[in-house]
Structure formats: C-alpha cells, structure tokens
Amino acid sequence: MTNPVRSAPVFSQTITDFWREQFLNGEILYSDQSFTVAINHALDEDSRVMVLETSDGRVMAVLTPELAEKIGLFQQQSLTELIFRQKLNEAGVTLHGADYLFYFSKADKNVLLQDNLEGDLRRLTERDELVFSEFTSSASEQDLDDAYVELDHWAVFGSFEQNRLVSVASMYPWEEDAQIADLGVLTLTSFRGKGHARKVVRSISKYAYSQGYEPQYRCQLDNHTSTALAKAAGFTLFGKWEVISPDSAN
To answer: Start and end of every N-acetyltransferase domain (predicted)?
Structure first.
C-alpha cells in the first residue's frame, strides 16, 4: 500500500509518524496511488472524520465506523476523493474550512538552530502581564480571535519596539503524547511589515526544538498574509487538513 505521508522525507520522523498515526492506524477501507480511506474506532467525537491532502497531492481520509456506516462506505468499494466528499455531503456531514499545515524541513531546521536572531525580543512570562494586557488592548477582537495568542500558553515570545510590545507568538502542545507545538502569532497593525512577526516565530520555534517539540504553523487557506509569513519564517507546506465542522449535526 502506498503511504502518502512517508513520501515527504524532507520532514522529521516526528511529523510523518504523527500523521500516519492519525490517518493510517485502523482498518484500510480503500487505497490507491492517490487516495486512502481508513476507519478508526479511537477517533474523538470532534474529529470523527478528517481529511489530509499532502503537498504532493495525495489524499487520506479517516472516519469512525459509525460515520462510515452512515454515509454508506464499504470495504473494497471503488472510491475517489470526489465520491467520498459527495457521500459526506449527501449525509449532511460538513467539514470545517481547511487549514494549511506548515513545518520546518530538516534542512531549514538546521538553519534555524544556527540562526542568531537580532532585535529586542525575548520570552514572556507572567511578570509581563501588564505589557501583554497593553498589547492585547491595542489589537482588534478579530485579530485576537484569529491569532489565539495567550500569556499562559506553554511558551510565549514577544518583540519590542521602543520598549513597547508590538508582536507576540505563543505555543501550546497540540495533541496529548505528540511532540508537536502549535503556534499563533499577532503583530499590531501599525508595526507590521517590519520583520517582527518573522523574528518571534523563529525565536519561539527555536525554543520548541530545544524542548523536544516540532513547531507547527497553521492558517486558513484564504489567509494570504499568514501564509506569506509562514514561508518567510522558513516553514515548508506539509499539506491541507480538514476536520468535521463543530456545526455539523451528524
């Protein structure tokens, strides 16, 4: 059977093994060169169907046995991604808007670890509550919601300009027992385009590696500014990930 994830050797074993566990650790219903569907009894309710398209164009889907039965999936039936999505749609199952998944390649990780980041930036702690509060009060509610940066996250880094906190990146372990740390980043509007976001993202990513974690950068497909930042910070696109919408009634 072709393994879509392992076709991307530029990424670390931690990343490829994580996604293999998510999508291929179960009963394989169908697999060909471009599309694989598996059933997994252990999926959580909020991830009872997921789809991953890796950057080489291959697609994997995984779902619970109950959902497979509901949409009419059977062992060894001929399947395509289009047919699979049609079955979901006909059963009233909707997927949340896809996220891009970015990680450092092995080569770019080595570059990052040797990088000496310059500028007024540092790790933030609970002692920075006042400056962090001033920072968040200067940002829009929409930006705060989209970025999801919090001072009590596992790691928080900030970039300053004239003693003012103007850009923040924060991280938290993404899944239990997975050495992957998901990050968010926010720069105040009037300070964008100056390299602050790139520096805090690279700084917090370097810290994650020092703690044994792979940094993960996610953003919606239509967030072109965030996509550009991911690339500028040295990340490489791994794939597009979809999960069942929280608004789905099924």
So the answer is: 119-250
For residues 14 and 240, give the distance between their C-alpha atoms in angstroms, rounded to a whole number: 18
How far is the C-alpha of 30 from the C-alpha of 72, rounded, in Å? 13
- What is the C-alpha separation between 220 and 223, in angstroms, rounded? 5
Convert the pLDDT of each residue in 161-213 to its tens digit: 999 999 999 999 998 888 999 999 999 999 999 999 999 999 999 999 999 99
pTM of the model: 0.91
* Encoded amino acid at 185, one letter: V
Cα-trace Rg, the chain? 20
CB 159 within 8 A of CB 200: yes
| Tally of CB atoms within 10 A around 138 | 15
SS3 (DSSP) at 146: helix
Alpha carbon distance 42, 23 (integer Å): 11
**Structure-token pair, residue 229:** 């930042």
